[in-house]
Each structure stands twice: as C-alpha cells, then as structure tokens.
Amino acid sequence: PALDWSQVAGAAPVQELARTPIAVLLLMESPDIVVSGPRLEWCLPDAWGKLRDFPRDFCVTSPMFGVQQAGNMQLAFYPNGSRTAELDHCTVVLTRGPDSAGIKFEFLVNGRGIGPKVCLGRRYLGDYPLPFDKTDENAPKHVVVTMKVLDILGA
Q1: Which residues contact 131 (CB under 8 A, 6 or more apart)?
Q2: Model confidence over 3-49: pLDDT tens digits?
Q3: Distance of CA 134 to the CA centre of its chain
Q4: What is the pTM of this model?
Q5: Shortest CA distance to 52 belongs to which of 147, 111, 155, 131?
Q6: Which residue of 28, 71, 80, 124 shows the fewest CB atoms closer than 10 Å?
C-alpha cells in the first residue's frame, strides 16, 4: 500500500513540500514585454531591418524585471553580436543585481535556443544564430527574445 505521509511523525504537510511556483515580475509596465509565470517574452520595438544595421557591440536593453530571490535583472540584445561573438551571431546578455540567487534558464531568439544555462554571478552572455537569414531583407520582421526561468538555485 502507498505510504500516507500525514501519518508519519515529523513529516511536513504536502503543501509545505511543494515549492512556490516561479513567477517573473516586471518592475515597471512595458508594452514590449509579456510575462506568463516563469516565462518572459520581450518583443524588441524596432524591426529587424533597423536592428541589423546597428554596429557590432551595440545593444538594446529590456525593462527591468525579477523573480523571487533574484530581482533587478535586465536583458541586452546585441543584433550583430558583442565584440567577441562569431560572425552571423547575435548576443543576449543577462545582467543581475548583487546578492541574487543563482538561476537556471533558457533563452530563445525567435524560438531558437542553445539549451539551458546557469547564472551564478552578475552576468551571463550567450551567442545565438541571427534571428533571420539574409533573404527577405525588406520584410518588417520583429525579434522576440524569450527567457524561461527553469529553477532558482539555493531557494
């Protein structure tokens, strides 16, 4: 028969064993960001036609956001990559406030990612394939950077 935890001396009730669901919170309302639980979608306000003309190592930043035990976070998107990025790659940077808990997360740029990552320090930097190839250059396309918070480490 299954073990009934309510009958075990010293066992925590099931409600206490469940972790608080992860929720991304915006520090300020923004029409460019949609938040749903542990997922943040940032639709960059400029179309790709304008972003692709930015110089290398130039970025656009998101509004500030946070999760429990890891507040004051911000994303930066480098359309043509940071100075150390490979050619034909963009860069996504996560910057965090001091004394934040570590987080496990995944970035997607227009739905394409490179797998889960962990940030224990103040900053994470990752290079991703460009959101669009060089065909259809005149199309009014937008870039969406998605961050899925998978876990808060040490919580």
Answers
A1: 48, 90, 109, 110, 112, 141, 143
A2: 444 444 444 444 444 567 899 989 888 999 999 999 999 999 999 98
A3: 26
A4: 0.83
A5: 131
A6: 28
